[in-house]
Design brief:
- The structure is a single chain.
- This protein is mainly α.
- It has one domain (about 20-140).
- Helices cover about 65% and strands about 0% of the residues.
- It contains 6 helices and no strands.
- It has helices at about 20-25, 30-40, 45-55, 60-65, 75-115, 120-140.
- Helix 3 crosses helix 4.
- The longest helix is centred in the middle third of the chain and has 41 residues, at about 75-115.
- It is rod-shaped.
Length: about 150
Protein backbone atom coordinates (compact mmCIF):
# COMPACT_ATOMS: atom_id res chain seq x y z
CA UNK A 1 0.00 0.00 0.00
CA UNK A 2 1.35 3.40 -0.92
CA UNK A 3 0.73 6.51 1.20
CA UNK A 4 0.76 9.94 -0.28
CA UNK A 5 1.52 13.04 1.70
CA UNK A 6 -1.63 14.98 2.51
CA UNK A 7 -4.03 12.12 1.84
CA UNK A 8 -5.55 9.74 4.33
CA UNK A 9 -7.73 6.74 3.96
CA UNK A 10 -11.36 7.19 4.83
CA UNK A 11 -13.13 4.41 6.69
CA UNK A 12 -16.81 4.59 5.74
CA UNK A 13 -19.54 4.35 8.39
CA UNK A 14 -17.13 4.81 11.30
CA UNK A 15 -18.69 6.66 14.18
CA UNK A 16 -16.78 8.25 17.00
CA UNK A 17 -18.91 7.61 20.07
CA UNK A 18 -19.57 10.65 22.22
CA UNK A 19 -21.71 11.02 25.28
CA UNK A 20 -24.02 13.51 23.56
CA UNK A 21 -24.61 11.32 20.49
CA UNK A 22 -25.23 8.28 22.68
CA UNK A 23 -27.89 10.09 24.73
CA UNK A 24 -29.54 11.92 21.87
CA UNK A 25 -28.60 15.25 23.43
CA UNK A 26 -26.78 16.62 20.41
CA UNK A 27 -28.74 19.87 20.57
CA UNK A 28 -28.69 20.05 24.38
CA UNK A 29 -24.98 19.59 24.99
CA UNK A 30 -24.54 23.32 25.61
CA UNK A 31 -26.82 23.02 28.64
CA UNK A 32 -24.80 20.10 29.99
CA UNK A 33 -21.60 22.10 29.61
CA UNK A 34 -23.26 25.15 31.19
CA UNK A 35 -24.13 23.04 34.25
CA UNK A 36 -20.57 21.74 34.31
CA UNK A 37 -19.23 25.30 34.14
CA UNK A 38 -21.54 26.31 37.02
CA UNK A 39 -19.92 23.55 39.10
CA UNK A 40 -16.46 24.83 38.18
CA UNK A 41 -17.38 28.42 39.03
CA UNK A 42 -18.58 27.38 42.50
CA UNK A 43 -15.87 24.94 43.52
CA UNK A 44 -14.97 24.47 47.18
CA UNK A 45 -11.32 24.32 46.03
CA UNK A 46 -8.98 26.08 43.62
CA UNK A 47 -8.58 25.05 39.99
CA UNK A 48 -5.04 24.00 40.85
CA UNK A 49 -6.20 21.64 43.61
CA UNK A 50 -8.92 20.22 41.37
CA UNK A 51 -6.48 19.71 38.51
CA UNK A 52 -4.07 17.87 40.81
CA UNK A 53 -6.83 15.62 42.12
CA UNK A 54 -8.10 14.59 38.70
CA UNK A 55 -4.78 14.44 36.89
CA UNK A 56 -5.07 17.31 34.42
CA UNK A 57 -3.36 20.67 34.14
CA UNK A 58 -4.68 23.79 35.83
CA UNK A 59 -4.91 25.57 32.44
CA UNK A 60 -7.18 22.75 31.21
CA UNK A 61 -9.58 23.37 34.10
CA UNK A 62 -9.45 27.11 33.41
CA UNK A 63 -10.26 26.53 29.74
CA UNK A 64 -13.24 24.33 30.72
CA UNK A 65 -14.50 27.01 33.10
CA UNK A 66 -14.16 29.70 30.43
CA UNK A 67 -15.88 27.55 27.82
CA UNK A 68 -12.77 27.52 25.63
CA UNK A 69 -12.47 23.72 25.80
CA UNK A 70 -14.76 20.83 26.58
CA UNK A 71 -13.85 17.98 28.86
CA UNK A 72 -14.50 14.34 28.12
CA UNK A 73 -17.19 12.45 29.98
CA UNK A 74 -14.47 10.78 32.04
CA UNK A 75 -13.03 14.17 33.00
CA UNK A 76 -16.47 15.47 33.99
CA UNK A 77 -17.00 12.35 36.12
CA UNK A 78 -13.61 12.88 37.77
CA UNK A 79 -14.56 16.49 38.57
CA UNK A 80 -17.88 15.31 40.01
CA UNK A 81 -16.18 12.77 42.28
CA UNK A 82 -13.49 15.22 43.42
CA UNK A 83 -16.04 17.92 44.23
CA UNK A 84 -18.40 15.48 45.95
CA UNK A 85 -15.54 14.17 48.11
CA UNK A 86 -14.53 17.71 49.06
CA UNK A 87 -18.12 18.68 49.89
CA UNK A 88 -18.53 15.54 52.02
CA UNK A 89 -15.41 16.50 53.96
CA UNK A 90 -16.60 20.08 54.38
CA UNK A 91 -20.00 18.84 55.59
CA UNK A 92 -18.34 16.52 58.11
CA UNK A 93 -16.24 19.37 59.51
CA UNK A 94 -19.20 21.74 59.47
CA UNK A 95 -21.34 19.27 61.39
CA UNK A 96 -18.60 18.79 64.00
CA UNK A 97 -18.16 22.54 64.32
CA UNK A 98 -21.92 23.05 64.68
CA UNK A 99 -22.15 20.58 67.57
CA UNK A 100 -19.15 22.18 69.27
CA UNK A 101 -20.66 25.62 68.79
CA UNK A 102 -23.92 24.50 70.42
CA UNK A 103 -22.03 23.22 73.46
CA UNK A 104 -19.99 26.41 73.76
CA UNK A 105 -23.17 28.50 73.59
CA UNK A 106 -24.84 26.32 76.26
CA UNK A 107 -21.88 26.75 78.58
CA UNK A 108 -21.77 30.50 78.00
CA UNK A 109 -25.53 30.91 78.59
CA UNK A 110 -25.35 28.87 81.77
CA UNK A 111 -22.34 30.82 82.97
CA UNK A 112 -24.05 34.15 82.31
CA UNK A 113 -27.46 33.28 83.72
CA UNK A 114 -26.91 31.03 86.70
CA UNK A 115 -25.43 32.18 89.95
CA UNK A 116 -22.45 30.15 91.02
CA UNK A 117 -23.77 27.06 92.71
CA UNK A 118 -22.96 23.39 92.96
CA UNK A 119 -25.72 22.65 90.43
CA UNK A 120 -24.54 25.16 87.85
CA UNK A 121 -20.92 24.04 88.31
CA UNK A 122 -22.05 20.44 87.74
CA UNK A 123 -23.90 21.42 84.55
CA UNK A 124 -20.90 23.35 83.27
CA UNK A 125 -18.64 20.33 83.96
CA UNK A 126 -21.04 18.08 82.02
CA UNK A 127 -21.06 20.49 79.09
CA UNK A 128 -17.27 20.81 79.24
CA UNK A 129 -16.92 17.01 79.24
CA UNK A 130 -19.23 16.69 76.23
CA UNK A 131 -17.32 19.47 74.52
CA UNK A 132 -14.00 17.72 75.17
CA UNK A 133 -15.37 14.43 73.88
CA UNK A 134 -16.72 16.10 70.76
CA UNK A 135 -13.46 17.88 70.11
CA UNK A 136 -11.53 14.64 70.57
CA UNK A 137 -13.69 12.71 68.10
CA UNK A 138 -14.70 15.17 65.44
CA UNK A 139 -12.74 18.35 65.30
CA UNK A 140 -9.43 18.73 63.49
CA UNK A 141 -6.39 19.79 65.43
CA UNK A 142 -5.56 23.48 65.53
CA UNK A 143 -3.94 24.46 62.27
CA UNK A 144 -5.48 21.57 60.31
CA UNK A 145 -7.20 22.55 57.11
CA UNK A 146 -9.34 20.77 54.56
CA UNK A 147 -6.75 21.29 51.84
Amino acid sequence: MRFELGRSEHVPNTRVPTWHSATGLQNENRRVYALFQAVLHNLPMSYTVLADRIGVSQPAVSRWAAGDARPSLEEMEAVFEAVRTEIDEVERHLEAFGSVLVLVKQALELYRSAPASADSESQIRRIARRLSERLATGAPEEGDSLR
